[in-house]
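FORM 7B: Structural annotation worksheet

SECTION A. Query
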Amino acid sequence: MSWFKKVFSTEKKETLNKGLEKSKTSFFDKMSRAVVGKSKVDEEVLDNLEEILITSDVGVNTTIKIIERIEERVARDKYVNSAELDKILREEIMALLSENKTEDFENLNLPTHPDGNPHVIMVVGVNGVGKTTTIGKLANQFKNLGKKVVIGAGDTFRAAAVDQIQIWADRVEVPIIKQAMGSDPASVAFDTVQSAKAQGANVVLLDTAGRLHNKINLMNELSKIKRVMQKVIPDAPHEVLLVLDGSTGQNAFEQAKQFTQATEVDSLAITKLDGTAKGGVVIGISDQFNIPVKYIGVGEKVEDLQVFNKAEFVDSFFKKNEDEK
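SECTION B. Predicted structure
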């Protein structure tokens, strides 16, 4: 590994550690109270741990799996010191997530297509989850890799949406295709992929409207956008990226369920983890949905949207407690 890569990797890890600070502090404060006065992991400790995991937004189903794994380990090892609980918990969460066969990501990558067409990413998610910001940050990172990027302002129903994505396009200096507010989103999608193909672009980032009030309408709208894009690029979109707000905890699970029922979702981005103590939601979503978490947002800066790696995430989540020992 080159010196530059080592430095970048260290900086990325430090950003991840800092971004998870609130989640870690909240989690380990609760953990220390759960084992106070206890010399071994007993039923009471496990009951407390179950409550901690659920209140950390790991989710009920994933929590049950984790507790069952620890119960098996305690039964097998006969005596487990409560001081070892952090280590055991870390190992069992990592083992659980490793059994989910979804891909891990080391670096931002972009598939190339034999026909020379751009890689089309359709970005979905409800309003307010950080969809526009995610598109802007991805556009900047792809551009820094030397890729030619085109943004499509497909959320034509919200007054500020086109203006917000225009600001990002100007900031990162990539072209944007847009129409007047209220225009047909499928028309914007068609213009975007047609323009991107004509320009020889490498990647298209297409925004979509963030409405979830009617699942059938959402399904129909996204299906129409896909059909229209396919008139230009037959296999578009190549990726549907669902953006979820990590700070909403269990609501992020519900949004994931709703969107995966409305359209095929290929990857997830979980944002706003730096401003919340609900970082456990990443563990639950990674376990519950057979869809790779591809990106996590751990800060305000453009580079603070990181590719997600399960082992790195678990390592950072438990790092603070180890450092304090």
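SECTION C. Observations
Confidence is low (pLDDT under 50) at residues 1-8, 321-325. The two ends are 31 Å apart (CA to CA).

SECTION D. Sign-off
Analyst initials: ____
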